Amino acid sequence: MSGGTRDREPGGSQAVSAPAPGVPAVRFSVLDRSRTREGHDDAAALRDSVALARELEGLGYHRFWVSEHHGVPGVAGSAPTVLAAAVAAATRTIRVGTGGVMLPNHQPLVVAEQFGVLEALFPGRIDMGLGRSVGFTDGVRRALGHDKGDADDFAADLAELLGWFRGTSGTGVHARPSEGLRVPPFVLAIGEGAAIAAAAGLPLVVGDLRGREKMLAAIDRYRAAFRPSVWSDEPYVVVSGTVAVAESEAAARRLLVPEAWSMAYSRTHGTFPPLPPAERVEERAATGAMKQKERDLYESGLRGHIHGTEDQVAEALATLIGQSGAQEVLVTTSTYDREGLRDSFRRLARITGLPSPAPSPALARGTGRPRGAESTPA
């Protein structure tokens, strides 16, 4: 993106409204983790993800990404490319992708084939977000046939994966239908991720917002080391984290409660539970039912996120975008209250002036923009 404005998607027009005063006109996207909720099964969480994508498309969000987690009781999204296919089939204009596929868990050829199929079915709408994490526990890693050391091969695996799309594998094998297609790759910055993205000339997704100084340092290193590639001429930064908007600061904070407690519980009990109602967590905290370590982690988990009224969030976003120079914000909010979550996204769309895509059945028939056509990914 250049000049502080959003680029139009190919094949359709967009009606753009002005953001709140002081909020730069950058892209806003969503990563949904398909979090399960107490009293609702995994299938409901997956259906919730698809339904949310449809609503966000109507609000003008740029991308909708899904995540990869294995053997985690609180997350239903274990097969991101499968879920991405369901989301893409249920929508028409919003870009769909992964945030991300954990490349150490898979053979690069298989990943290339999966995204090639997605791009062939939904041309011009698919993103390939890639991470270097390996399993949540030792048991999960053993079940996947990998260990922590496999993350060290991420850069080589990434190069191999991209080679399958360009037809440069040198093996005599061709990835079909991937070869020749252009699926924008993104690198999720965990540990060495920023350096790998810079060396490969790929867009960077970096978070979270609570570690602001660390995040900004990673962005600076990425921009300084970036080398133009066939995938991207210039650095492209996506900052990710929790953003919650409500009618009051207290109501917005309440949206953060279930995820903050679930994370605290996972670190004190070794399991990642489904999201409970905020009221029950607050009662547990008020009655002293939490042990001190759990309570400390819970309270820590509530700090540092962007949350509040529309005016408060607009001011916080202006600061974040000004500090980071990011071209895009990827919102990762999870909560028990689905209506509260949808209301938060509606309020966020209003204060950031998101474009409402005009109906266009023929939208995005191409296979992607060539290098040099514009300075940012689709």
Describe the structure.
The protein has 378 residues and is α/β, with parallel strands linked by helices. It is built from 12 helices and 13 strands. The strands form 3 sheets. A 9-stranded parallel β-sheet has the order 4-3-2-12-9-8-7-6-5, covered by helices on one side. Strands 1-13 form a two-stranded antiparallel sheet. A two-stranded parallel ribbon has the order 10-11. The longest helix has 21 residues, at 249-269.
Query: What Rg is obtained from the alpha carbons, in whole angstroms?
Result: 20 Å
Sequence stretches where pLDDT stays below 50 over 5 or more residues = 1-16, 359-375
By secondary-structure content and strand pairing, the structural class works out as: alpha/beta
Report the principal-axis shape: globular
Largest sheet: 9 strands, parallel
| Average pLDDT score | 86
The overall strand count is 13
Strand neighbour order, sheet with most strands: 4-3-2-12-9-8-7-6-5
**DSSP helix fraction:** 40-55%
Topology:
Blueprint: E1 14-15, E2 27-32, H1 42-59, E3 63-66, H2 80-90, E4 95-98, E5 101-102, H3 108-121, E6 128-131, H4 138-144, H5 154-166, E7 185-188, H6 193-200, E8 204-206, H7 212-225, E9 237-241, E10 243-245, H8 249-269, H9 278-286, H10 292-301, E11 306-308, H11 310-324, E12 328-331, H12 338-352, E13 356-357
Parallel strand pairs: 2-3, 2-12, 3-4, 5-6, 6-7, 7-8, 8-9, 9-12, 10-11
Antiparallel strand pairs: 1-13
Describe what is shown at a glance.
This protein has 378 residues and is an alpha/beta fold.
